[in-house]
Amino acid sequence: MRDERNFCCTGCLTVYEVLDENNLCDYYDIEATPGTNQKKNLLRENRFDYLDDEEVINKLIDFKDEEQAHVTFFIPMIHCASCIWLLENLYVLNPGVISSRVDFIKKKVQIKYQLKETSLKSVVSLLAHIGYEPRINLSHLGEKKRPQNNKRLIYQLAVAGFCFGNMMFFSLPEYFSEAELLGNGFNSLFNYLNILLALPVVFYSATDYFRSAWIAIKNRSVNMDVPIALGIISLFSYSLFEIFVSGQEGYLDTLGGLLFFLLIGKYYQQKTFDTLSFDRDYKAYFPIAITKMVKDLEEVIPLTKLNVGDIIKVRNEELVPADSLLLATEASIDYSFVTGEEIPVPVKKGELVYAGGRQKGAAITLAVQKSPSQGYLTDLWNHETFAKEDQEDSLASLSNKISGKFTFTVLFIAFGALIFWSFNDISIGVKAFTSVLIITCPCALSMSTPFTLGNVMRIFGKGGFYLKNTQVIEKLAGIDTLVFDKTGTLTAPSKATVTYHGENLTDESKRMIKALVNYSVHPLSNRINQWLGDVKPVVLDRVEEIPGKGLTASYHSKTISIGSALFLGVGDEDKAINTGNEVYLVIDGMHWGVFSIASGVREGIEKMVPGLANSYEVHLLSGDHNHEEKYLKKVLGDKVAMYFQQSPKSKLTHIRDMQAKGKHVLMVGDGLNDAGALKAGEVGIAVTDNISHFSPASDAILDGEKLNLLPQYLSFARTGRRIIKASFGLSFTYNAVGIFFAVQGLVSPVLSAILMPASSISVVLFTTLATNYKAYRIGLNDKKIIKWK
Question: Which residues form the HMA domain (predicted)?
């Protein structure tokens, strides 16, 4: 005890002392159980001196510039809301810490700190001092590890199992009605031995239930552990009354079995969630690719095949996938996705460029220094900068509301059964009371939502459709309006044809054009790049790309530009070539010619879009002129509303106008000029082919070859909601049947403890079988769609 406060362990006392020294004790007004359980230890002053080594620091940190550094630690001691609160308030304990964010599921904390105010060593020392020492193992950096089992839970289960087995042994004479053969002395001895064995079961194995229930009551709420705690207390108390007052045997063997089977169910649930979390994290690899240089030739490969030492090319607006050394003369890197700072950082040859930076300007070559971290890119994807305004998950909140009301209902029924039976047989009353509390635990309700949505995400991932989080599934299910970008989204680069009209192109002009389009990842630039073939590009100066308009650069004394007629101030829109998109070429201010690009839609689009138009309101927004309107009307159908000459800003405005009318909009774009529109929609899907373009503004990334499966994805999202609601119904049916028998005293507490995890297993089996069956029925479990191009 200190300052009239009681602490469960020395660890909590240590945390209190740290908080008290830094005037943070208001924490105890909002949290009932602060800190984390730990053994108090004295840290050697030189324990973390190795963190002063620059080479070690560079291996650990995720990002560093002149002002700040970012680092992510795995902290296995994270286990409750108190831990999250303390770790996310590190900036108060150390003013050099900018911010810290906890990932509770993965037990990780990402810390941003100022280099001039503190150091990595100081940050780690602070974490260790307050009881959250990170696990640092330089030899295993970047390796994927499965979550470790909760050893405390295993110990509790072992204690409960040992005591339950021995209590059953001491109670065998009672089961076979042979107690009188042992004599009263032995009978009483066995009862007292059972009491001794019950003490560690109640005061160790059951402590987590008591703690959780007490926190809920202190916060004036009721969670699923409240009825379990009441059942344990009532069974233990009544057994003591039976033994010491009535001279009977009590129900201590039943109590031991109850805790043993409850903890088995809890261990199973924990393993289920750990497996689900690991599986989802593994499947969260989105189809980002990178251009690898092999003997001066470009080869587009999946990021998973990129190795340390490879030479890569990163074009304008592309994301740097791994920490790399700059081989080009200079680069301008935008780290806004990492730091929030929008001003590009100049980088010189030989300097380190961090993963997550976006190149601005001319294409650059880099030498990969670290293995690509898609986990780090996933964190960027979930950066708060790109968070949607409405993040409420109504299915999860529905589950929480149902669980809360359900628990109050269970308590009412349990106390009603106890009162009813107490007038006739108090032992049956206690049995019915305990059985009702245990058998009707709403664990299945809490498991159905995350497990179903996690399974849906896994199936989506196999089909090349990668979601940011499970909330996207529910939002997909509520969509009523679809908005498609045209170029690079509905159209297929492989089916496009390019025709040039104008002045003859010399070898030098072709090399200049090749170099210019090489800097861009826009679909039209890619098509011209392919049309030029193996032309060797020149080295350009001062390359600039204006999104949605065009490119301009200098070569020696010449200026070269390509783009739209409006951007370059050339061409006659009334007499424009009507065969497709026009990309105009201007050299030294003179209109040189025009590339006419006839688009071809992706495979299956001619059936997909008209089919969607029968169920949704469908819009097409394109930055191009309306040259292909008749062709698109013929292919996509008359129900599609088409809008041309749409700038990125006008696309954003169009979506917001529809939302103002109550529409729920899904935006499907290529992620190049559509970042604002992707973020504005309830759901934004970035379609990608082989290009290395990753847009954190999107909620999902879809392999371009799987775009024709969009109707199945939307249908499956709605199916996921129905499966969750069906699992709720299954759980309610199970609990109603259980209550019917439990209130009559026909079910023992031990049998209830066995049936309770069985309900969770039934929900897991139901959701797994239902989601996989529905996925198979609509063609999403076909192995042929899993292969990545």
Answer: 69-135
The secondary element (H helix, E strand) that includes residue 733 is helix 710-742
What is the reported pLDDT for 785? Answer: 41
Distance CA 170, CA 190 (A): 6
Q: Across all residues in the chain, what is the average pLDDT?
A: 77
Does residue 651 sit within a domain?
A: no
Amino acid identity of residue 527, one-letter, is: R
Q: Are 286 and 468 in contact (CB under 8 A)?
A: no
Residues 190 and 90 in one domain: no
Contact 347, 353 (CB under 8 A): yes
220 domain residue, yes or no:
yes
DSSP 243: I
SS3 at position 593: strand
3-state SS, residue 257: helix
- What does the angle CA 507 – CA 566 – CA 678 come to, to the nearest 5 degrees? 100
CA atoms within 13 A on the CB side of 42: 2
Amino acid at 693: H
769 by Cβ neighbours in 10 Å (0-12 / 13-18 / 19+) ranks as: exposed
Say whether both 120 and 32 belong to one domain: yes
CA distance 172 to 9: 38
In 3D space, the residue among 423, 430, 411, 442 whose CA is nearest the CA of residue 745 turns out to be: 430
CATH number at residue 555: 3.40.1110.10
pLDDT category of residue 222 using cuts at 50, 70 and 90: low
Q: Do 203 and 234 share a domain, yes or no?
A: yes
Report yes or no on 772 lying in a domain.
no
Question: What is the rounded distance in angstroms from the CA atom of residue 201 to the CA atom of residue 753?
Answer: 15
Q: Which of 121-125, 224-228, 251-255 comes out lowest in average pLDDT?
A: 224-228
DSSP helix, strand, coil percent of the chain (3-state; round to 5): 50, 20, 30
Using the 3D structure, point to which of 115, 140, 165 is the last residue of a domain: 140
- Whole-angstrom CA distances from 568 to 306, 371, 580, 584, 592 are 39, 42, 18, 8, 11
Do 307 and 269 have their domain in common? no
For residues 694 and 319, give the distance between their C-alpha atoms in angstroms, rounded to a whole number.
7
Residue that finishes a domain, picked among 529, 563, 598: 598
| Count: domains in the chain | 4
* Coil/strand/helix, residue 219: coil
Q: What is the 3-state secondary structure (H, E, C) of 302-324?
A: EHHHCCCCCEEEECCCCECCCCE
| Structural domain containing residue 516 | 497-598
CA atoms within 13 A on the CB side of 588: 5
**Range 51-69 average pLDDT:** 82
Distance CA 211, CA 203 (A): 11
Residue range 347-376: mean pLDDT, rounded: 83
Shared-domain flag, residues 76 and 160? no
Q: Are residues 532 and 580 in the same domain?
A: yes
Closest C-alpha among 45, 53, 39, 44 to residue 8: 39
> Under DSSP, is residue 771 helix (H, G, I), strand (E, B) or coil?
helix
One DSSP character per residue, 403-453 reads: HHHHHHHHHHHHHHHHHHHHTT-HHHHHHHHHHHHHHT-THHHHHHHHHHH
133 shares its domain with 15: yes
pTM comes to 0.64
481-485 vs 665-669, strand pairing mode: parallel
| Confidence band of 667 (pLDDT split at 50, 70, 90) | very high
In-domain check, residue 594: yes
What Cα–Cα distance (Å) separates residue 274 from each residue in 150, 271, 277? 10, 5, 5
Identify whether the C-beta of residue 779 lies closer than 8 Å to the C-beta of residue 712.
Answer: yes
204 φ, ψ (degrees, to nearest 5): -130, -60
Dist. CA 612–CA 490, nearest whole Å: 14
User: What's 58's domain CATH number?
Assistant: 3.30.70.100
Q: Does residue 201 sit in the same domain as residue 273?
A: yes
